[in-house]
Amino acid sequence: MKTNIFRTLLSMSLIIIITTISLSHGNKHEKPENPLFAGLDSKAAKVVTQFRKALMTGDVKLANSLLSKDVLIYESGNAERSSLEYVSGHMLADMKYLSSIQSEQIEHQVKVSGDVAISTSQSKITKKDAGKTSERISMETIVITKIDGKWLITHIHWS
Amino acid sequence: MSNKIITLTLIFISTLLFANEDDQQIKSIINEIKYGWENGDGAPFRKNFLDFEGARYIESGGQNEGLSDLVEHHVEPEKDALKFLSLDFSKIEIHYENDFAWAVANTRVKGEVRKTGKVFDKSGFQTFLFRKIEGDWKVVHTHSSSRDFKPKKHEH
What is the ipTM for the molecules in this complex? Predict the structure, then answer.
């Protein structure tokens, strides 16, 4: 009887040890996450990347569909307080500007917390004008909120 | 019927009271941050900011990574670098989503650089993002941007 219990315990211990070793061994082969580009697989993050792409390709309809109606946008010393105000106002100028420059995202992190997500990113902007090349860093904070089951952008701060 | 009305009224009042309490706490934190910037004092930041890996605080084209970086390389050095600094937050709006809140405000910042004597006067915007941790609101991200202040021209 005692021998059976001992064997059972020994088998269980071996299973636990082997599982632990194989899991830790497996982790060694996982690609470590780049901290500069983190959390980008979430649905909220995809809204941000889609929005960025829409602005860069001049897709007004897509960009508008990703904004909450009461979005608050801070940009270049201005505040826009609805998607209607932004889409009918500054967005076209932003699209024109983005088509005239090279923008390289140098970091982007998205953190989801319940029905809200925070996206922060940094881009290097290169502009060629009359043979001269200038560079600057652009910073972006975006708040994405799950509204009626859909992730939408509720706040943007560009600087 | 009257019981239902009383219950709903009580729920409504308690919701308002709690919202008010949250508003007060967040506005008080913003006020402490103002004090911290103006006095080059890192204590209000260490008290009210959530210290976590990956935290980022953005200011007009630059950022500090982590709370210690913000306090040691931005807040505290300004005490020596600036002769004076005045920071005002106005039109504070706070939005809530369960245990998450974001506050936005208009900013006006004035100061004088000790070394050069250069005086600056800028206006702009501030975004604060908060998370409620164990009953207390903590700042998890900030973004401020400003430009040289230009008074608005009156239209006639």
Answer: 0.83
